[in-house]
Amino acid sequence: MNPAVADAVADAHRREWAFVLAATVRVTRDLDLAEECVQDAYAKALATWDERGIPASPGAWLTTVAKNRALDLLRRDATMRRSLPLLLDEQTTPEPPEPDGSPVEDDRLRLIFTCCHPALSEQAQVALTLRLLCGLTTAEVAHAFLVSETTMAARITRAKKKIATARIPYRVPPAEDLPARIDAVLTVVHLLFTTGHTAPAGDTLVRHDLLDRSLDLVRMLRALLPGNGDVTGLLALIVLTHARSAARVAGDGRMLLLADQDRTRWDHAAIDEGVALVRESLQSRPIGRYAIMAAIAALHAEAPSWEETDWHEVVCLYDLLLRVWPSPVVALNRAVAVGFADGFAYGLKELDDLAADPRLAGYPYLPAARADFLHRLGRTAESRTAYEQALTLTDNTLEKTFLTTRLNDLGPDQNHPPANLRGRGPTRRNRD
Amino acid sequence: MAKYLILIYEDEASWANAGPEDYERAMKEHTAFGENNRDVLRGGEALHPGSMGTSVRKDASGDFVVTDGAFFETKEGLGGYYLIEVDDLDQAIAVAKQVPAPYGGVEVRPVMVFS
Predict the structure, then answer these.
(1) Long-range contacts formed by A60-65: CB under 8 A, 24+ apart
(2) Which architecture does CATH list for B2-45+74-110?
């Protein structure tokens, strides 16, 4: 086979899956059947495009083939018509005009709002989004969240059953519900992004599959909901954070903190795009949490070095973020920024105040941040205890290695020298 | 169209301690809810608290056991319900948001249809 054809099909899979599926659902009024027909269409594309060439509009070609397959199946086998068909918007239930087989633009929005309906559990929303909007197989979705394929298959089946049984409509919500529903969608995309950015467990720090998917999704949302400040803010945040991802892991595989990263390895074109998006998103009112987080990311991205970061401005933005989104993790990040803006003793005080919050009890970054500040303040024994505490709270191999290195860099514990320290030189640190 | 049962779960202790003005307000709010949703309402009742309930189950040997109290011992008890008929879950949720439930919340459950 012509490798260009395989590439074109793979590309169309990534770019057009949601578009093709969203249009096919309109015909089948059943998610499972639509998925089957879309899969068939992609399989057919591999053979047909090889023979006849790649069509000018792969998405339209795939949509027509998938829809025809669906119509064919429905005609031949009446049992294909489910007893609980997906509910279509009354006004648009008649087939849209399709001289070129293209669906109305917001079919993808209908699919997004169905996948991210608040009546579904967040886990189900995430799974359906990856499966139906990104076209991942159940095995791939299971792998992304480190659960067994059986568990994930059951989760997806149950979610689809709820959509049909509880009659979650295939519809863009009315204007009064839209802000809350968009927020639910953005929460799912943001969760995919943060899970990809630092995998909670496993042997790699960054899950590029999830990061790339979250970027695809937020770009699609931006195209479908132009001018929405929260969407623009999340896009800015993901673009800016993504721009730094290549520098987060050193050549030898170690994890590098923002402070220690080689800033020339950042993607500066992406940073420029992100900064422009931040400016745009900050013009929306009210200013949303993603826009503020993106503004913080922009300050970091534009700073020539960690030391030269505008920490006072970072603290101000965290103050604003706490007002919009009171969350213990935001408070933790603010406390770290206070340490760099006003002095480590002040930052440590803020961190200690947060240690009482039960919501942060299992969060490794709190003891890790305390350990760093304690170390900078020369309180080595306490720093060691805090690093040890952080180590018990993460299952990510790279994070564990990072914390162990920091711990070992404190020098040997006089009482209990760890075996792996034998033969190591004295503490080498160059940042204090 | 589809039927949904809106189950009202509230903290029974709060109602036990409520004064006459609270009951009066609840009565007014439910009356207003009923008027505002007349077109979709198919039924609804308030229930006495779980302590007034009697549970009837079968034990391992298949004999009936009748006991005092609600089926599930929880802080929030089923205090009433509305049966509604609307197009979809979004409409059902929109109605559910209007149900007065000062000491708890509601659950929206689709009614099973047998063909």
Answers:
(1) A60/A100, A60/A101, A60/A102, A61/A101, A62/A12, A62/A16, A62/A20, A62/A38, A63/A19, A63/A20, A63/A23, A63/A24, A63/A101, A63/A102, A63/A103, A64/A98, A64/A101, A65/A40, A65/A41
(2) 2-Layer Sandwich (3.30)
Q: Do B88 and A165 touch (CB under 8 A)?
A: no
- Which sequence spans correspond to the domains of chain B? 2-45+74-110
Give the orientation angle of helix A31-52 with respect to helix A3-28, to 10 degrees. Answer: 150
* Closest approach of A27 to chain B, Cα-based (Å): 19
pLDDT tens column, A307-339:
899 999 999 999 999 999 888 889 999 999 999
| A87 → closest Cβ in B88, B110, B115 | B88
Residue A207's region, left for phi above 0, alpha for psi from -120 to 50, else beta, is beta
Q: What is the pLDDT of residue A414?
A: 58
* Residue pLDDT, tens place only, A346-377: 999 999 998 888 888 888 888 999 999 998 88
Model-level pTM?
0.79
Cα gap A50→A4, rounded to integer Å: 9
A87 touches chain B (CB under 8 A): yes
What is the average per-residue pLDDT within A123-136? 91
Closest chain A residue to the Cα of B113, Cα to Cα: A165
**Nearest chain A CA: its distance from B59 CA (Å):** 32
Residue of B nearest to A84 (CA): B113
pLDDT band per the 50, 70, 90 thresholds, residue B55 = very high
Tell me the β-bridge partners of B56: B66
C-alpha distance from residue A96 to each of A38, A412, B90 (Å): 19, 72, 24
Distance CA B5, CA B87 (A): 14
Neighbours of A36 (CB within 10 A): 18
Cα–Cα–Cα angle for A367, A373, A376, nearest 5°?
A: 140
| Residues A290, A313 contacting (CB under 8 angstroms) | no
Please state at what angle helix A328-342 crosses helix A344-354, rounded to 10 degrees: 160
Question: What's the CA gap between A388 and A364, in Å, rounded?
Answer: 10
User: What is the distance in angstroms between the Cα of B97 and the nearest Cα belonging to chain A?
Assistant: 12
A401: how many CB neighbours lie within 10 A of its CB? 14
